TrEMBL record:
Protein name as it appears in the record: Carbohydrate binding family 9 domain-containing protein
Domain Carbohydrate-binding: 44-213
Annotated signal peptide: 1-21
InterPro entries (UniProt xref): Carb-bd_dom_fam9 (IPR010502), DUF5916 (IPR045670)
Taxonomic path: Bacteria, Pseudomonadati, Bacteroidota, Cytophagia, Cytophagales
Entry-linked SUPFAM superfamilies: CBD9-like
Organism: Chryseolinea lacunae
Length: 739
C-alpha cells in the first residue's frame, strides 16, 4: 500500500500551501431578465434588427469555472424577445476573431461544444429544478440541443434529444453574435406561468473559463438547475401550439452476409414517428416500424473485466423524457435500461410499433408510460414491453418515484416453448437539499417470474455530500440472487462459469464509499488539483467476501486545458468460478487473488490544432501481469475538419498453463463538415478482442431543420485473415412536418 501514500505526498508537494478563499460575486444571487413581446417575426441571420434595441440586456456574467468569484473578463450581453411562436435570444460575445476556438461544425457534439467558444441558454419552463432544455451554438454556428436532468448534485445533458429550432452566427473582428429562435412547440411548460427558470452559459476558450449569467458554484456543472435565474414575461404568454408533428421516413439498403454464405439482399422500408401534444406539458410519441439504421455506431472498447460494458442509448424514440424511465437505481444497478428493447446480443430486433406518453400532469407530478411491440426473428421471440413510471416532487427539490416493467412473450420462436413473462415493481425516494449539497437515496425493487422465486429484491441506500473543497458519500446495496429483471443492466449479478459454460446468478451486497478533496491553487499554472479515493466491496448474500476494488488517484487540471491523472488501484477477488478472462479456453482457477495496478494519463492543450493524449497502466492481473498503453492524436483544421486516431494495447501474461494475449484496438476517424448542415463522418475500428475490423462511413445532409438525408456504408472483416464478414449500404430520408 506504500504507493498509495506516495501519491498523496506527491500531490501535497505539488499543491501550493494556500487555496483560494472564494468570494461571492457582488451581483444579486437571483437574476431576473424580462422578455418583451415583439409583434413581428424576426429574421434569424446573426444581424440584430431594430426590435432588439429596446429589449433589456443582461448584466455582466459571473465566473463559474475554474473559479466562481468575480465577473467574467470576456463580456457577454444577452437579450430575449418573444411572440406567440418563438422565444428569441440574441447574444453579443466579445472576443477577437483570431482568438476563437471552433472544434467542430457537427451538430450535437457535447464534448467539442464545451471545448469551443460558444454560447448556450438553459431553460426550466416548469421551474421544478429537475428537468430543463439546453440550446447552444459555437462560434462556427454548430448547434447543440439536449434535455437536462438533475440527479442529486449533478446535472446531466442528453445531447441525443433533438428538436426543431433555428440559429445563426455572425463573426466580427472583436465580437461574434449568436441569434436563436426556439419554437414554443419544442418546449413543455404550463400556460399562464409568470416566469421560467433561466441561465446563460458562455465558453471562453482563450482563457479556459466558463461563465454564467446566474451564479453557479464551481463544484457544480454550469447546467445546474438549482441555480437558475428568472425569465420574466413582460406580457402574458399565449403561444400558438402545433398539436401534431409527423416525421415519416423512407429507407432502402443493399447488404450481404458473406460469413453465413447468404445471397445479397435489397430492402425497402417506410415508417412514421409522430408527436402529439395532449396538453402544454404532456406529450404522446408514436412510432410505426421505426428504423435506426442511421444511428451512429457504438465506439468499441476493450473489456478486460469479467462483466458486460454499458453502452449509451442513441435511438431517438427512447430519448424524449428519458430521465423519467432511466433515472432509477444506481451507477451499479439500472432497473430499466432501454437497450434491452429491440436489441439482442448487439443485433437489432425489428420493432413493429411503440407508444410513449410522458410529461407533467401537474406542476409537481410527472408520468411516463411506454409500450413497445417487437417482432419475431429466427432466434428471438416476439415480446411486448411495457414500462410505467411516476415522479411526485416533494419538499423543495426532492422526489418520490415508482417504476413498473413488464416483458410478455406474445409469439414464441426458436427454442422458446411457452409465452413467459417478467415483471418488476420498484419505488425510490430522493432527498436533495435546496442547493444540492446534501443528498439521500432510498431504493426498493422486486421482480416476478413464472417460477415465483424468493430472494427477488433489490434494495439500496445512498448518502452524498458536496462542497467546494470536499465531497464524499456512501452507498449500501443488496441485489437478490433471483432479482431477475429482463429490462435491467446488472452486470455483477450474472457470473460466467467457464468450466460448465453457463451463467450463474450470485446475489450480493455492495459497500461503496468515496471521498474527494479539491484544491484551487493561487498564482499557479494549475486550476484545480483533485485527490480522490473510491472503493467497491462486494459480499455474497451469506456475508462471505466476493471482491474489492480500491482506487486512490490525483488529477491536475491546468489553466491551458492540459490534464494529468495518476492512479493506483488494488483488487482483491475471491473468484467464484473458473474464468476465461483471455477467451482462450484456458480458464484461471477458483482462488483468492490480490493485485495492484498503477496508471497515468496525460492530455495536451486541446485548443491547439495538434493535440492528443497518452496513457499507460502496469501491474499484476489475477495470477499474472497486465500492461496497457495507448495514445490519441488529433488534428483540427478549423472549423471544417477533425481527424484523429486512437490506439490501445493490452498485453496480458498469465502463467504458462493459462496463456497470454494481446488485445489491440485502433480507431482512426475523420469528421468533415462541408457546411453547418452537411457532415461526413468515417470510423475505422480494428478490435482484435472482438475479432472484427469495422468501417462505418456516414453522410448526413440536413436539408431542412430536423429533416435529413443519410447515406451509411458499413463493412466488417475478420482481424485474423481480413476475411470479409458482411457489408452493406443504407439510404434514408426523414422529414419533420408540423401540423
Amino acid at each position: 500500500m506504500k504507493p498509495f501514500y506516495c501519491l498523496v505526498l506527491l500531490s501535497l508537494w505539488l499543491a501550493p500551501s494556500r487555496a483560494w478563499s472564494h468570494q461571492q460575486p457582488t451581483q444579486p444571487t437571483t437574476q431576473v431578465l424580462t422578455a418583451n413581446r415583439t409583434p413581428s417575426l424576426l429574421k434569424i441571420d446573426g444581424v440584430l434588427e431594430e426590435e432588439w434595441n429596446a429589449a433589456p440586456a443582461t448584466g455582466p456574467f459571473t465566473n463559474q469555472w475554474p473559479l466562481d468569484s468575480g465577473f467574467a473578463e470576456a463580456r457577454t450581453e444577452v437579450k430575449v424577445l418573444f411572440n406567440d411562436q418563438f422565444l428569441y435570444v440574441s447574444a453579443v460575445n466579445y472576443q477577437r476573431r483570431e482568438d476563437l476556438i471552433i472544434q467542430s461544425l457537427k451538430r450535437d457534439q457535447l464534448e467539442p461544444f464545451w471545448r469551443s467558444d460558444g454560447f448556450a441558454i438553459l431553460v426550466d419552463p416548469l421551474r421544478q429544478k429537475s428537468t430543463g432544455f439546453l440550446f447552444g451554438v459555437n462560434a462556427g454556428g454548430a448547434q447543440l440541443d439536449g434535455a437536462v436532468t438533475q440527479t442529486s448534485a449533478w446535472s446531466q445533458t442528453n445531447e441525443n434529444w433533438d428538436n426543431k429550432w433555428f440559429s445563426a452566427v455572425k463573426v466580427y473582428d472583436d465580437y461574434w453574435i449568436a441569434e436563436m429562435a426556439i419554437p414554443f412547440t419544442a418546449l413543455r411548460f404550463k400556460e399562464g406561468a409568470d416566469g421560467w427558470g433561466l441561465n446563460f452559459i458562455r465558453n471562453d476558450m482563450k482563457r479556459n473559463v466558463f461563465a454564467t449569467w446566474s451564479p453557479v458554484p464551481v463544484q457544480l456543472a454550469g447546467t445546474d438547475l438549482a441555480h437558475l435565474g428568472t425569465l420574466q414575461w413582460g406580457q402574458p404568454l399565449h403561444p400558438v401550439r402545433s398539436r401534431v408533428t409527423l416525421v415519416p421516413y423512407m429507407a432502402g439498403g443493399h447488404s450481404r452476409n458473406h460469413e453465413e454464405g447468404e445471397p445479397a439482399k435489397t430492402r425497402g422500408d417506410v415508417g412514421l414517428d409522430a408527436k402529439v401534444s395532449l396538453t402544454s406539458s404532456l406529450n404522446l410519441d408514436l412510432t410505426l416500424r421505426p428504423d435506426f439504421s442511421n444511428v451512429e455506431v457504438d465506439r468499441q472498447m476493450t473489456n478486460v473485466t469479467r462483466f458486460s460494458l454499458l453502452y449509451p442509448e442513441r435511438r431517438n424514440f427512447f430519448l424524449e423524457n428519458a430521465d423519467l424511465f432511466a433515472n432509477f437505481g444506481s451507477w451499479n444497478v439500472k432497473p430499466f435500461f432501454s437497450r434491452t428493447i429491440g436489441l439482442h446480443d448487439g443485433d437489432p430486433v425489428p420493432i413493429a410499433a411503440g407508444a410513449r406518453l410522458s410529461g407533467n400532469l401537474t406542476n409537481s407530478l410527472r408520468i411516463g408510460l411506454m409500450d413497445v411491440q417487437t417482432e419475431t426473428t429466427d432466434e428471438v421471440s416476439a415480446n411486448n414491453y411495457f414500462v410505467a413510471t411516476v415522479q411526485q416532487r416533494v419538499l423543495a427539490r426532492s422526489v418520490i418515484k415508482a417504476l413498473v416493467t413488464n416483458r410478455q412473450t406474445t409469439r414464441a420462436t426458436g427454442g422458446d416453448t411457452q409465452l413467459d413473462y417478467n415483471r418488476t415493481l420498484g419505488g425510490e425516494f430522493q432527498y436533495t437539499a435546496p442547493k444540492a449539497s446534501f443528498n439521500v437515496y432510498l431504493r426498493a425493487h422486486t421482480a416476478q417470474t413464472p417460477e415465483k422465486l424468493s430472494e427477488n429484491n433489490y434494495i439500496s441506500t445512498q448518502v452524498s455530500y458536496l462542497t467546494k473543497k470536499y465531497y464524499g458519500g456512501l452507498m449500501l446495496e443488496k441485489v437478490g440472487e433471483n432479482y431477475v429483471n429482463d429490462l435491467s443492466f446488472i452486470p455483477r449479478l450474472h457470473n460466467y462459469d467457464a468450466a460448465r459454460d453457463t451463467t450463474v446468478r450470485i446475489g450480493h451486497y455492495t459497500v461503496n464509499p468515496w471521498f474527494g478533496w479539491l484544491i484551487y491553487p493561487k498564482n499557479s499554472k494549475t486550476n484545480i488539483i483533485e485527490l480522490n479515493t473510491w472503493s467497491v466491496i462486494n459480499f455474497r448474500s451469506d456475508g462471505s467476501f466476493l471482491e474489492r476494488y480500491t482506487s486512490l488517484n490525483v488529477s491536475f487540471a491546468f489553466k491551458d486545458t492540459r490534464k494529468l491523472y495518476v492512479e493506483a488501484t488494488n483488487n482483491e477477488v475471491n473468484l467464484p468460478f473458473p474464468s476465461d478472462i483471455l477467451d482462450n479456453d484456458q480458464p484461471i482457477p477458483v482462488e483468492h487473488y490480490n493485485f495492484t495496478q498503477y496508471s497515468a494519463r496525460y492530455t495536451t492543450d486541446t485548443r491547439k490544432a495538434f493535440n492528443g493524449s497518452v496513457n499507460a497502466s502496469f501491474g499484476n492481473f489475477y495470477n499474472g501481469t497486465r500492461l496497457e498503453y495507448g495514445m490519441t492524436l488529433n488534428f483540427r483544421s478549423q472549423p471544417w475538419g477533425l481527424f484523429g486516431v486512437s490506439f490501445l494495447q493490452n498485453d496480458i501474461r498469465l502463467p504458462e498453463a493459462y496463456g497470454k494475449a494481446q488485445f489491440t484496438l485502433v480507431g482512426p476517424r475523420a469528421e468533415v463538415s462541408l457546411r453547418n448542415n452537411l457532415w461526413w463522418t468515417t470510423f475505422l475500428q480494428y478490435n482484435t478482442q472482438a475479432g472484427n475490423f469495422n468501417i462505418n462511413s456516414r453522410v448526413q445532409w440536413r436539408f431542412k431543420p430536423m429533416s435529413d438525408i443519410f447515406v451509411v456504408y458499413t463493412d466488417n472483416y475478420a482481424t485474423t485473415d481480413m476475411r470479409v464478414k458482411n457489408k452493406g449500404v443504407v439510404f434514408k430520408l426523414t422529414y419533420w412536418l408540423n401540423l
